[in-house]
Write a structure and sequence with these properties.
The chain is built from eleven helices and 18 strands. By secondary structure, the protein is an alpha/beta fold. The strands form four sheets. The protein has an eight-stranded mixed sheet, sandwiched between helices. Strands 14-15-13-16-18-17 form a six-stranded antiparallel sheet. Strands 4-5 form a two-stranded antiparallel sheet. Strand 17 (372-376) and strand 18 (379-385) form a beta hairpin. Bound molecules: adenosine-5'-diphosphate, aspartic acid and magnesium ion (MG).
Length: 404
């Protein structure tokens, strides 16, 4: 008998039919004698709708209340999934994040899991129940509902698998696994049989929303091997695991694009020690994650400083930067929307050269202008105009021979 954690995303529970399909799959695993913990997301579109509703009521809704609101999406699905299992004669109980013992820090709308005490989950499993846990949510130390950031049900599943020492963790979604690029953008993308944590982490944090990046970070830290597979068929999917030597033979594993980026330039910043620290400390204190940072060569003691961030964080960042510009004596600042970050990822890049040149050549051939460049050991990212992002992704994917 194995303990299996199965996570089903929004499209997999999008309507009553799909929920019954999930219940059928869960029942099949349960009937094979396994203990099953199911993590479900909100039905697809529900979280987005709730966010829209909140903004209709208040331009900048309170984060605590946002969490109370958004957590209802997953709460709906756990109950419906439990009911669908009951209808098939399978014992099942639903639990909210708090009831499942998922305790987080206090940062509403993007909380981090502090610890999990899954006593109730174990009790119910021992009693022969399928346990259905609401993804994406927890509770802070003072008892308030928190949520784990968009796509956070992946994190719930991985973290529960670690806490329960599960034998298997399966992330069921609407594609057959992790592909060399988003199969909706690159039609000839290939499914990968396996991928290392580091590559998955880079692809996810650079825009491949098939896995929430924080969940991959967590899996790497606690060595949770997991698979990504389809809830609509029995194809084997992609195994995400620790790197093996063979994996380094592949230079570029995949390409990803992040269209949710904005760019901020602070113009004519006085070039003296402590200014960068002042700017980025203030932005960090507002819980805004800054991504690429470029500082120009200084001319006459002044420099321009450009950075990218998630476009949803732009209003929050603006609030901080406005007074800061005056304080540090900069000339002003500009914000650019409509940009995208395109990246190639692969652990093989550590030992192979020429990837950057290949990527830039492919973009040059399509007359796509590169606005910013950043590299790490296993990835190269460029900022380009969002309008050409899909075309750029296809040509770069083709350049490295990743297509079918
Ligand atoms: P779920 O609702 O199951 O969590 P998501 O919509 O969050 O599913 O993630 C699945 C989607 O991720 C796919 O439909 C696909 O369009 C997108 N995606 C982006 N990049 C990739 C990739 N490299 N491989 C597979 N899917 C990807
Ligand atoms: N429902 C949440 C979201 O849409 C969490 C998830 O689906 O993983 O982001
Ligand atoms: Mg998801």
């Amino acid at each position: 008998m194995s303990l299996i954690v199965q996570k089903y995303g929004g499209t997999s529970v999008a309507n009553a039919e799909r929920i019954k399909n999930v219940a059928q799959r869960v029942k099949r695993s349960r009937d094979q004698g396994h203990q099953i913990v199911v993590v479900v997301s909100a039905m697809s579109g529900v979280t987005d709708n709730l966010i829209r509703l909140a903004r209709e009521v208040h331009g900048s809704p309170d984060d605590r209340e946002m969490d109370v609101l958004l957590a209802t999406g997953e709460q709906t699905t756990i109950a419906l999934t439990a009911m669908a299992l009951h209808a098939m004669g399978t014992k099942a109980v639903s639990l909210t994040g708090a009831q499942a013992g998922i305790v987080t820090d206090g940062v509403h709308t993007r909380a981090k899991i502090a610890n999990i005490t899954p006593r109730k989950v174990h009790e119910l499993l021992d009693g022969g129940h399928v346990v259905i846990v609401a993804g994406f949510q927890g509770v802070n130390e003072s008892g308030a509902i928190t949520t784990l950031g968009r796509g956070g049900s992946d994190l719930t599943a991985i973290a529960l698998a670690a806490a329960l020492k599960a034998d298997l963790c399966e992330i069921y979604t609407d594609v057959d696994g992790v592909y060399t690029a988003d199969p909706r953008i690159v039609k000839n993308a290939c499914k990968l049989d396996e991928i290392s944590y580091d590559e998955m982490l880079e692809l996810a944090s650079l825009g491949a929303k098939v896995m929430q990046s924080r969940s991959v970070e967590f899996a790497k830290k606690f060595k949770v091997t997991f698979s990504v597979r389809s809830s609509m068929n029995d194809n084997p999917g992609t195994i995400v695991k620790e790197e093996t030597r063979k994996m380094e033979d592949v230079v570029v594993r995949g390409v990803s694009v992040d269209k949710n980026q904005s760019k901020v330039t602070i113009v004519q910043v006085p070039d003296r020690p402590g200014v960068a620290a002042r700017i980025f400390k203030a932005i960090a204190d507002a819980h805004v994650n800054v991504d690429m940072i470029v500082q120009n060569v200084s001319e006459l003691g002044l420099t321009d400083m450009t950075f990218t961030l998630n476009k949803d964080d732009l209003p929050r960042a603006r609030k901080v930067i406005e007074p800061l510009v005056k304080e540090i004596g900069a000339k002003g600042f500009t914000c650019t929307e409509g940009i995208a970050k395109l990246s190639v990822v692969g652990i093989g890049m550590r030992s192979h050269s020429g990837v950057a040149a290949g990527m830039f050549e492919a973009l040059a051939a399509e007359k796509i202008n590169i606005q910013m460049i950043s590299t790490s050991e296993i990835k190269i990212s460029v900022v380009i105009d969002a309008a050409g992002a899909d075309r750029a992704m296809n040509v770069v994917h083709g350049k490295f021979g990743l297509g079918k």
